What does this fold into?
Amino acid sequence: MINLTDPAEIKRLAAAHGFRFSKSLGQNFLTDPSVVRKTAAASSENGVKNVIEIGPGFGVLTRELAACYDRVVAVEIDKTLLPVLDETLAGLPNVTVVNADVMKTDLQKLIKSAFGGGRANIAANLPYYITTPVITSLLESGADIASITVMVQKEVAERLTAAPGSPECGAISAAVSYRANAKKLFDVPPSSFVPRPKVTSSVIRLDMLSAPAVPAQDEKLLFAVIKAAFGQRRKQLKNSLFSAFPNVGKQAIFDAVDGAGLRPDIRGEKLTLEEFALVADRLYKHLR
Ligand code: SAM
It folds into this structure.
């Protein structure tokens, strides 16, 4: 039986298939069986039966997911991994590998065609170079996603799961908390991978909300306000907003901040999601 958590087995497979690890594709493969088990278990906890895995690599997490789910679709960009996956996933009829760049994949379409509709979870040991764009596009895809369980760089995990208003919070944390409940689950040291990355990783889970966390008249405007606030996070909110929306005028911006019940000197990084929505809704009439 293939043991994909054994570094010797990884070496053997790589040599047998002439596979070379690509740094630029973030190819650090998991070799810690407890991390693999815990990630798949956390991902499938909500009882959803279908999962899309991003970046199966040699298939270590894919095999565990296959045991936890009815159906697994694994999206892998690197076609040199396909013959390896043919070998490592042989005999698993509930797994399908799709050779594609997840950044160019319409996930809503994939979920429909692969699972015939219904909700799906997302699971991944994500390559670091696409963490933020993948998570942002998953959150905004409108696809029927129930939860996203991903391994990311520890610092990024802390940012993604930070509560708005807390010191670690950034624009991405606010965007996450608008659409999901985010939880950091556990840390994973560099020694859990082959080859070893330089940084510690963490597994997080985003449980998607059935409706956005706060009502907003115009989502795009809400995100523009959040981006403006964190773009110049040490500045007073009213000044950041004036730089971002000069046509609104200083008085209307002061009124929006005041009307949202905020101190005139408050800094953008201090706002909760509700407060961002209150400010955005007060700016709305000036920007239509
Ligand atoms: N899941 C495996 C594991 O845990 O051992 C491999 C994880 S490795 C960190 C990231 C994987 O994502 C690699 O297999 C890499 O080729 C793949 N990948 C990188 N960029 C991708 C993209 N844009 N779309 C799909 N897969 C991608």
